[in-house]
């Protein structure tokens, strides 16, 4: 059953205990969360979501399922036609984004991890959505494969964002291999700029320097969120090593330094020089140590919270938080970090300006779909 709860009461009532609910109310008063939390639906291990023009949602599950979900979350249907995915480790079905011309062409873009003869990699694909009685993705095309495929199950990234001029930006993690982030011929550890058919976009900035023709920026570790703001600036959050999670303003042709520099260190304690030691590399606008383990990124329109217009919202995994970054033009600073009690994989803005969250569902997480609205708005 759906319920409307205030702040951390949602976490207490999930245990079904009145005493816990009272504790949740007290925690809400102490934490001062500026939103009410509504539990909309439960999933196993959701990864990403996007809204259709009619208010319904597409939600990906790590296991390779794409769901078409009603606007109230009460009905869901699996979408037929999805390819098989590699689900080990951090692999699975990942991002889902609509083509800017979706109302006319019905194109849905998605990413997933794939196993090949030489290892594994992340794939960008698209299909035509039939959202009828038996929903399906038809005419699926593989548009782009990261290169090279390598052994391992980590740091696929796989986030997708469309620019206002219709190009596809696609993030590739460095697959926990470090050096490919600086390798000009690899797409690993890069942000890519593609035409909507998956071919390298014309005019990419590093072609004349011998880079893979799709590369837009490089020196990234695991960019798990990319989004454009209203002014056309591309922002990305990046999961750092042991410390050093980052928010970056992504500029064409720039080197963001990994693994040569980072504001964190290697797991095991081996130091990495800080960004300030190598000013030739593009430094993050914001970094965290201790980490937040960022797991998704959106730019907020300000519809329901005008004071947050243009700010970034990040899902916190290990931090079990929703994180706000205050943006002023091309500058950014830390804003709020609200405890949510579960690993947050994805934030997304709904059609009316509500903030929707997907809990991660991994490592004992809840896997729920949550809707955030201003506190007390439903009581006015």
Explain the layout of strands and helices.
Blueprint: E1 3-6, H1 9-13, H2 18-31, E2 35-42, E3 46-51, E4 57-61, E5 66-69, E6 76-78, E7 93-98, H3 102-105, E8 107-116, E9 119-130, E10 136-145, E11 157-162, E12 168-172, E13 190-194, E14 215-218, E15 225-228, E16 234-238, E17 245-250, E18 286-288, E19 294-299, E20 312-316, E21 321-328, E22 331-339, E23 344-349, E24 355-359, E25 368-374
Antiparallel strand pairs: 1-2, 2-25, 3-4, 4-5, 5-6, 7-8, 8-9, 9-10, 11-12, 12-13, 13-14, 15-16, 16-17, 17-18, 19-20, 20-21, 21-22, 23-24, 24-25
Number of domains: 2
How large is the radius of gyration? 20 Å
Portion of residues in beta strands equals 35-45%
Q: Helices and strands, in N-to-C order?
A: EHHEEEEEEHEEEEEEEEEEEEEEEEEE
Main beta-sheet strand count, sense and barrel state: 5 strands, antiparallel
What is the CATH-assigned architecture of the largest domain?
Answer: 6 Propeller
Average pLDDT number:
92
**Level of helix content?**
under 10%
Annotated CATH topology of the largest domain: Neuraminidase
**Straight-line N-to-C gap:** 23 Å
CATH superfamily of the largest domain: TolB, C-terminal domain
Low-confidence stretches: 1-30
Structural class, by secondary structure, is mainly beta
Count of helical regions: 3
Shape call? globular
**Which sequence of strands runs across the widest sheet?**
1-2-25-24-23
Highest-level CATH class of the largest domain: Mainly Beta
How many strand elements?
Answer: 25
């Amino acid at each position: 059953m759906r319920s409307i709860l205030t702040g951390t009461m949602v976490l207490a009532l999930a245990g079904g205990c009145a005493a816990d609910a009272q504790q949740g109310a007290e925690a809400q008063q102490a934490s001062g969360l500026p939103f009410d939390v509504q539990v909309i639906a439960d999933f196993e291990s959701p990864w990403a979501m996007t809204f259709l023009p009619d208010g319904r949602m597409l939600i990906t599950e790590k296991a390779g399922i794409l769901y078409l979900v009603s606007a109230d979350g009460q009905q869901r249907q699996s979408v037929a036609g999805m390819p098989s995915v590699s689900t080990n480790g951090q692999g699975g079905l990942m991002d889902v984004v609509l083509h800017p011309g979706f109302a006319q062409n019905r194109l849905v873009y998605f990413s997933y991890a794939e196993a090949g003869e030489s290892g594994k990699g992340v794939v960008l694909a698209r299909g035509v959505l039939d959202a009828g009685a038996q929903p399906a993705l038809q005419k699926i095309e593989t548009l782009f494969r990261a290169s090279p495929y390598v052994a391992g199950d980590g740091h696929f990234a796989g986030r997708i964002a469309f620019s206002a001029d219709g190009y596809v930006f696609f993030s590739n993690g460095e697959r926990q291999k470090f050096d490919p982030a600086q390798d000009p011929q690899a797409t690993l550890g890069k942000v890519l700029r593609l035409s909507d058919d998956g071919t390298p976009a014309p005019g990419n900035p590093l072609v004349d320097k011998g880079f893979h023709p799709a590369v837009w920026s490089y020196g990234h570790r695991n960019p798990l969120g990319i989004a454009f703001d209203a002014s056309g600036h591309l922002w990305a959050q990046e999961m750092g090593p042991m410390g050093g999670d980052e928010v970056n303003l992504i500029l064409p042709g720039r080197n963001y330094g990994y693994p040569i520099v980072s504001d964190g260190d290697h797991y095991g304690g081996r130091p990495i020089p800080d960004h300030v030691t190598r000013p030739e590399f593009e430094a993050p606008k914001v970094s965290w140590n201790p980490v937040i383990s960022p797991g998704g990124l959106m730019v907020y329109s300000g519809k329901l919270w005008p004071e947050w217009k243009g700010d970034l919202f990040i899902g916190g995994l290990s931090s079990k938080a929703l994180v706000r970054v205050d943006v002023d033009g091309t500058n950014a600073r830390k804003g709020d970090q609200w405890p949510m009690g579960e690993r947050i994989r994805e934030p997304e803005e709904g059609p009316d300006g509500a903030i929707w969250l997907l809990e991660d569902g991994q490592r004992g997480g809840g896997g729920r779909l949550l809707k955030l609205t201003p506190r007390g708005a439903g009581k006015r």
